[in-house]
Amino acid sequence: MRARIFCLTIALVVAGSVIGAQASDPLASWNDSAAKKAILTFVEKTTDQGSPDFLPVPERIAVFDNDGTLWSEQPMYFQLFFALDRVNALAPQHPEWKSEEPFASLLKGNMEAALAGGQEAILEIIMASHAGMTTTTFEKIVSDWIATARHPKTGKLYTEMVYQPMLELLVFLRANGFKTFIVSGGGIEFMRPWTEAVYGIPPEQVVGSSIQTKFEMRDDGPVLVRLPKLNFIDDKEGKPVGINLHIGRRPVAAFGNSDGDLQMLHWVTAGEGPRLGLLVHHTDAEREWAYDRKSHIGKLDKALDEGLSRGWAVVNMKDDWNVIYPFEIK
Amino acid sequence: MRARIFCLTIALVVAGSVIGAQASDPLASWNDSAAKKAILTFVEKTTDQGSPDFLPVPERIAVFDNDGTLWSEQPMYFQLFFALDRVNALAPQHPEWKSEEPFASLLKGNMEAALAGGQEAILEIIMASHAGMTTTTFEKIVSDWIATARHPKTGKLYTEMVYQPMLELLVFLRANGFKTFIVSGGGIEFMRPWTEAVYGIPPEQVVGSSIQTKFEMRDDGPVLVRLPKLNFIDDKEGKPVGINLHIGRRPVAAFGNSDGDLQMLHWVTAGEGPRLGLLVHHTDAEREWAYDRKSHIGKLDKALDEGLSRGWAVVNMKDDWNVIYPFEIK
User: Fold this and answer.
1) Has residue B20 got a pLDDT over 70?
2) N or C: where does chain A have the smaller number of CB atoms within 10 Å of the terminal CB?
3) Residue B62 in contact with residue B181, Cβ under 8 Å?
4) Whole-model pTM?
């Protein structure tokens, strides 16, 4: 009986989404545009049993980049703000950081100098700030930070700087039987503590970059210790690899915003049958940020050319989204 | 409307399982035993909203070892039969194998000598037989093999040698809101092509050992190439690491059969709240195989002691299961 109530609850919740979607526009924050039409057409044809493009539910896998696709990424990836706060908190235990780059610049608040070392500098910062504790402790550190830290420009919580149109898209896809995954260059364990509450995406559907962990039996029980060793970078060529390792089948829809998503979009859209590739183009300097080919963060150059030539949908944020952040409509 | 029909279908399918479960014993192949009672009690208390042990649906994660837990593993892991068949098929292209171990022994059919090199010999065989092609090609090779290859003793397809009681357990758990995962030392891409059809477990819920893959853009499109380099061994201390990487939260129930599952059972049962750990003890030399502390394959020694002292459920296959394989009841 309890199990039956649980089943009914599922049915009602799912049906509720659908009824809501029928009563009003499920993508209300999207203006009429080519991108919106591409999404609606794709969902229509893949869920219509009479369509030659119909997809059985298990094949309905959709993957989303996170930084710049589901939430903002300027003036730098939000995870770097987290790393900066961690480095500041840990600095008293590391007097050597005062003279060692990238930490010296970081502690002076000079992010540009700190990141001048590129990928290697970022990795050093990540290892110093993300390793050396158990997975349980790290989860708590992230949860505490994400609940309180605020963006330097907007003063909002970082989780308030997610895109309302993409939240609607996630709900719309799931209401139509799609399973939604994050496939991000960001840290897998940096995202998991909050993606379920913010995006409705559970930890097991989050793919990201990672450091190594090690199992240890301690007197008070087993732990997983986070090591300062790189495990996997889920970016560029790494995204199809991460998709294959974690999901194990090729998704049918991919959403990204930068050259880091290019290979993921190639991999997903090259599959047989109906496919949807979509790029978010940051064009709104007033409500968000405007950047593309020359940006250090979220560079969109080659992927934009490829997208235009291959018929991927391209969202012009300024024109296509009538709301950017959820707090605008509250 | 289509979406609504889809939702109703879900509801009916789920409700159907439950009604079936109420009308008859959902674990009909399990004799009344301490293990069966442990399972029923655990599911009852974690799904009863009035129980102090109630678990919200997203927390209902159950992990299953594969070899020896969901299907047989004697006289050797079934994946080694696959590797042997692959080595034989590839031998004409590798004349050097005639004099190189472990291949020389393998080609003579002397498995014992071939595996005398232990883990390293197995890895060499796996690399030679599982790498060097695209993921798409490998999936087809596995699918073709699993559909036709037969076990040397029973003459059955390997997928017919799954345990009926465990199939019932998987269905029962899922009907009660649990998400079921495989966490196996076997190859992740060796399992994925058939786990959905055989166990109802989709590729994205399969965790296993893996070799590295590499993304390549070819003239006819993107591919992932399987490299002869180890990526991850999902066994012993690796199982909690694999669980953390792929699932990202601690499961509440774990099912295994050997010392390779010990750390997974520790990790799962050490969590707060209600937990279920279960070991399958192979005690039936007539209907299956009887082996434990001294077996080279599926050794159950330390885990058995730990299980008995920590109160994990232990299945005595001979006494507790009235059916082993599904073909017995067809």
Assistant:
1) no
2) C
3) yes
4) 0.92
